[in-house]
Amino acid sequence: QVQLVESGGGLVQAGGSLRLSCAASGRTFSSYAMGWFRQAPGKEREFGAAISWSGGTTYYADSVKGRFTISRDNAKNTVYLQMNSLKPEDTAVYYCAAYYSDKYYVRQTVNTYDYWGQGTPVTVSS
């Protein structure tokens, strides 16, 4: 079992930056691949970024590539999402998610992820 708690969301102007954090409970955090997803009002939840259990592999959606960076600190049981050059279309609730994996690659489909946080809202004003 993994429990996830996101933080760091808020209101920011276009072009600004935010860093989201996701704190995980449990002693086996390093056994899980982690992902960040987002859901805008009236839209489906979409993949943003993922990182392997070791941190050695990362993968990004085209919409955030080059602007967002996912990272993890297994000693702190935390995964991060650094978001730069934010755009109004990045406005959404951001969710942290996890699935058990010892593989070097990561997946981007919602159904792959077994554990989810409650979400943290991000609003980017123009």
Strand content: over 45%
Subunit organisation of the chains: single chain
Largest sheet: 7 strands, mixed
Q: Give me the secondary-structure category.
A: mainly beta
Low-confidence sequence ranges: none
What is the N-to-C succession of helices and strands?
A: EEEEEEEEEEE
The coarse silhouette is: globular
Distance between the termini: 40 Å
Rg calculated over all Cα atoms: 13 Å
Global mean pLDDT: 96
Describe this structure in words.
- The protein has 126 residues and is mainly β.
- Helices cover 0% and strands 48% of the residues.
- It has no helices and eleven strands.
- It has strands at 4-7, 10-13, 18-24, 32-39, 46-51, 58-60, 68-73, 78-83, 92-100, 115-116, 120-125.
- It starts with a strand and ends with a strand.
- The mean pLDDT is 96.
List the main descriptive attributes of the protein structure presented here.
126 residues; mainly beta
Give the SSE map.
Layout lengths: L3 E4 L2 E4 L4 E7 L7 E8 L6 E6 L6 E3 L7 E6 L4 E6 L8 E9 L14 E2 L3 E6 L1
Parallel strand pairs: 2-11
Antiparallel strand pairs: 1-3, 3-8, 4-5, 4-9, 5-6, 7-8, 9-10, 9-11
